[in-house]
Amino acid sequence: MEIGLGILLGIGLAASCGFRVFLPMLVTNIASLLGYLDLAPGFEWMGSWVAFAAFLVAAIVEVGAYYIPWLDNALDTISGPLAMIAGTVLTASFLTDINPLVQWTLGIIVGGGTAGIVKVGASAARLTSSATTGGLGNHAVATTENVMSVVTSILAFILPFITAFIVIVIIVYLIRKFNELRRTKWLFRNKHESIPPMN
């Protein structure tokens, strides 16, 4: 697989990992089993039936756990690093016939970075839902994330360029919102620190 296409696939699937860690792994495994893609040397295990069973069980457990009140927020703490690892592994698995150093560097930057940013955005949405609805709206958030993970994973294989473009737009938006929030907090803190104490 050429590097360009591998990177596009990596971006789309890594973004899916930001919503759910194991669903994109499962979709990739199924695509490999169906002969739709060739994985890089050393990643053939991802296309095995053993991996299919493992990813299927893990995906079911992960999806179900996000519907348990309060456990969903706790899972975000654990799944953040796992999403980045999954994004890195998936991206690296598509980069065939390439120097291992470049392969893993691209995997970390493209895959891990994309998954991490999307995960932060998804976690922020869940925390907002918990704060504003007392957790009652978290089921809707979980369902949306499940659908986004599956749809984005499938589209990454069918329309890799368009999917990657949409993901990049979302990432730019999230980074801008994060910077705006950080700037607002900084201005708020400095404003209050500049007010002299009342005697």
Notes on the protein architecture:
- The chain has helices spanning 3-19, 22-33, 49-65, 71-94, 100-133, 138-158, 160-194.
- The chain is mostly helical and 199 residues long.
- The mean pLDDT is 85.
How are the SSEs placed, and which strands pair?
Layout: H1 3-19, H2 22-33, H3 49-65, H4 71-94, H5 100-133, H6 138-158, H7 160-194
Strand content bin: under 5%
How far apart are the first and last residues' alpha carbons, in Å?
71 Å
Determine the number of helices (DSSP H or I, runs of at least 4 residues). Answer: 7
Low-confidence stretches: none
**Biggest sheet statistics:** none
Helix and strand content put the structural class at mainly alpha
Count of folded domains: 1
Shape: globular
Count of DSSP strands: 0
Mean pLDDT: 85
- Helix percentage: over 70%
The Cα radius of gyration reads 19 Å
**H/E series:** HHHHHHH
Quick recap:
By secondary structure, the protein is mainly α. Helix content is 80%, strand content 0%.
Key phrases:
80% helix; 199 residues; single chain; 7 helices; mainly alpha
